[in-house]
Amino acid sequence: MDAPLQPPEYNYLDKGQGYRRFVVWLHRALLLIVLLTLVGALLVGFQEWPGYVYLAATVGLVLLSQWVLRRRGPEASTGLLAAGLWLIISLSLLQFAGIYGVNLLAYPFLVGLAGWVLGKRWLLGMTAVSVSWLLMLGLGAHLGWLPPTPRTPALLVTLQALSLLVVCAALVHAAHRSLASSRDEALRLSDALSQRHAEVQARERQLAQLIDAVPAGVASFDGETRMRRCNPRYAALYGKRPEQLVGLRVVDFVHEDVLPQVQPHWAKALVGQTVRFRRSNRDPSDGSVSWLDVSLVPELHEGQVVGMFALLVDVTAQVHAERAVMELNAGLEQRVEQRSAELAEANERLEQTQRELQEAQSRATLSVLVAKMSHELASPVGNSRLLADTFLHWIRDFEQELDQGQVRRSSLNKLLADLRSGAVQMQLNLAGADSLMRDFKQLSADQASGQRRRFDLATLVGEVMASLGPALRRSGHRVRLDLPEGVAMDSLPGPLGQVLINLVNNALIHAFEGRSHGEILISAQLLDGPDQGRVELRVADNGKGIAAEALPELFKPFYSTKIGQGGSGLGLPIVEDIVCKRLGGSISVSSEPGRGSCFTLRLPLRLLEA
């Protein structure tokens, strides 16, 4: 930013401190003249007492001028001083030397002071009264009306003349400095104005070039919508050159078909509103229609609209593109409806397939249970058959001895002891088989029916793990249960058992690959606080863990690290679907490579009604 122009350094016309300092200097100069005059009068023994009165009056005038300076300012103080000195000097001349007095030197001083400091009126007034008074004194001396008094002592006249000359010289010097400073300041201001004028012209050229280069129509109007200036692009919209539009009103060059679109918005802009709208434009050369986005920005001065700025942007290509998009959207609606119907049908098929997969998984789990249970029942049933055959063999031997009459008491006692021992062993085998059958019956009923019932969580988990006993013994791994007693649930035991079987099998297949003596911990705890009424069931293993990049993918269908090796990628997605949709809970997994994995289920103790 350019430095502001400063006032001259020595400007005594300033009403500020410089002017005040000048008036104070005048006071001191007058007091010095009075002092020198008084010293001269005393040295020469001047006896005219009115001379001392005039000196005292001068001192009083200076004091009064100082008081006015403090109260009313330097201009009033200077005016009082000039008028008072003129009056004192005129009276002194009238009483003493008249036209021959040395005090005549004070008149040029007073005229210069009045004209330079107080202005043109004081200059003319002081000059007129001084000339008139001197003419009266001269005429009076010529006609003998004012006879001159005896000459004043030479020393006193010399001191008065010297002091007046010194004061006049100081006044002329101050005036010279003020005029020189004003002249230098005028030259500097002239140079600065010339430089700023050149800068303004350069900026105007740059602004004109910038406006002409703007890829839009730009125009400036006055408060009566007359064109002040526009760029070539704006004029080209109307088939004109910029100079042809200057001075024209909007109604003079806008096509009559377009005016109804423009006038309502111009009316709003002329009352101070910024307006933006879209309108059409007809090319005057070929009649083609284009589309313009118009912005009208009012120019305000003291709350009144004094002008208008208009910006016109050609958006014809955008309008055509929008219309094409609208037509495309209109054609796409039918396609979207068709695709939506197809998608709904596909979703329905997907849900049906998912239900079938769950049922197939349930059937497969039940089939595995049947096979495992058959294998588990083979041992107690086979032992019982063997004992039954042995009983028959013992009975045949005893009947032969009885027929031959060789029955001895010791043989009878031995037979009874063997039968008793065998019966006990058979009873144990059949009791184990009966227990397995009861667990399997309940588990298979839950798996097959999927019905809701009340059950104890620890009992259900024990039954499920009993069904997996043969598979666990063959694998060399074990399951450890840490379940509180008395956790009663009202839910779906079949789907919950299927979830536990899938999680345990998943650990056997993936977690303990290449390892032996692994351990699976199934634990549970009741939740408090916001999750009150829920149980947290955890299935954790100490296997090899899951890679971090695989964790987000675990519950996605068909994701498996064993694809092509017996893995289908459907086990965990089915588990998530059962837990979230059928059991009304949530499932999450955490794992660290080399430190095992933990699947956490949060299930409601009482399943909400569907």
Written description of the protein model:
There is one protein chain. With 610 residues, the protein is an alpha+beta fold. It is built from 16 helices and twelve strands. The chain has helices spanning 17-44, 49-72, 74-95, 106-118, 120-143, 154-213, 232-236, 242-245, 250-253, 259-269, 316-403, 409-449, 457-467, 469-475, 493-511, 571-582, and strands spanning 217-222, 227-230, 275-282, 289-301, 304-314, 453-456, 478-482, 488-491, 519-526, 534-541, 586-591, 597-604. The strands form three sheets. It has a five-stranded antiparallel sheet with strand order 2-1-5-4-3, with helices on both faces. A five-stranded mixed sheet has the order 7-9-10-12-11. The chain is elongated, with a radius of gyration of 62 Å. The two termini are 77 Å apart. Residues 1-14 and 445-449 have low confidence and may be disordered.
Summarize the entry for a quick read:
This protein has 610 residues and is α+β, with helices and mostly antiparallel strands. The chain has 16 helices and twelve strands.
Amino-to-carboxy terminus distance: 77 Å
- Give me the side-by-side strand order of the main sheet: 2-1-5-4-3
Count the beta strands: 12
Low-confidence stretches: 1-14, 445-449
Structural class: alpha+beta
Computed Rg? 62 Å
* Mean pLDDT across residues: 76
Topology:
Blueprint lengths: L16 H28 L4 H24 L1 H22 L10 H13 L1 H24 L10 H60 L3 E6 L4 E4 L1 H5 L5 H4 L4 H4 L5 H11 L5 E8 L6 E13 L2 E11 L1 H88 L5 H41 L3 E4 H11 L1 H7 L2 E5 L5 E4 L1 H19 L7 E8 L7 E8 L29 H12 L3 E6 L5 E8 L6
Parallel strand pairs: 7-9
Antiparallel strand pairs: 1-2, 1-5, 3-4, 4-5, 6-8, 9-10, 10-12, 11-12
